[in-house]
Amino acid sequence: VVQDTDELLAVWMAPGTECVRPVLADGTQVHAEPLATRYTAPRTTARSTWFGSGVLKLAAPGDPWSVWLF
């Protein structure tokens, strides 16, 4: 955690960091679902490991989005 205030949560995710990611309800990766149903198919989460370069994630509490800086 880089910063955790009432206005901002900033988190650095280094390569290899354990995290959770969205998957379809049956465990299939989201990108394997056809576009027509990709955003409406039931989902759950699964444990994963962050791969690639690190990322700084910025989120304002209460906002339904975040900004990821690669």
TrEMBL record:
Please give the superkingdom of this protein's source.
Bacteria
Name of the protein in question: DUF402 domain-containing protein
